[in-house]
Amino acid sequence: MQQRLDRWEARAEWPLASVTAVFLAAYSVEVLVQPQGLAARAVELATLVTWAVFTVDYVARLYLADDRKHWFRTHLVDLAIVVLPLLRPLRLLRLIVLIGVLQKAVGHAIRGKVILYTISGAILLVYVASLAVLQTERDAPDAHITNFGDAIWWAITTITTVGYGDMYPVTTTGRVIAALLMIGGISLVGSITATIASWIVQTVAVDDAASAAVTAAHINELRAEIASLREELRAPADNGSACDQQP
């Protein structure tokens, strides 16, 4: 079963990335353009279709897992994204799939990953939070965040923990989004720090291993030279003994 789950996840990666891009585009149009009539229905249809794909992916991975109870317990966020209406902005966390695709394009160099996490992760969090908080806040009484520029400014000051206080959410949902953005920012910084620390430890370990290998090679060379010298010293002695034994 685990192999089937791995194959499913590998095959679904690119399709999910494409669906996620469509979802982001539809959600952006919904929030920023606020379409009416046929355009609004088209956006809603695109959102529902992508939402259905995410649900199918969740159900398929749950079915293919070896230990379904353990998988269920360790993927509660995925369940929340699919099920809980209160956490609807969290569905954009599926955009992490896009980060995984970009990560593969960069390669396996750990430094490339750090750069990727820093840039794409920060941009993704700021953009998603801006859309979500703008949709929630702009029609609320006494709202401070009423346009996308304000939303971007609020998201940047929040994720960097600057928090000027000039703009803040006034709705419960907006405050939930703010809390999630703070947690996401802290997690992003922690992930980057841990990755850099891991790279340093790995680099030191590789250098130590290389030094140990060079030292071992030098010792083997010295042993070989000593053995060669011993053979050379024994050769005259053996010849002299042979000459003494001749009549």
UniProtKB/TrEMBL annotation:
Domain of life, source organism: Bacteria
Potassium channel domain segment(s): 123-201
Pfam families: Ion_trans_2
Entry keyword set: Coiled coil, Ion channel, Ion transport, Membrane, Transmembrane, Transmembrane helix, Transport
This protein's GO CC annotations: voltage-gated potassium channel complex
A GO term for molecular function: voltage-gated potassium channel activity
One example of a Gene Ontology biological process annotation: action potential
Residue stretches in coiled coil: 212-239
Subcellular location per the Swiss-Prot or TrEMBL entry: Membrane
Transmembrane segments: 12-33, 45-64, 114-133, 145-164, 176-201
Membrane topology qualifier: Multi-pass membrane protein
The protein, known as: Ion transporter
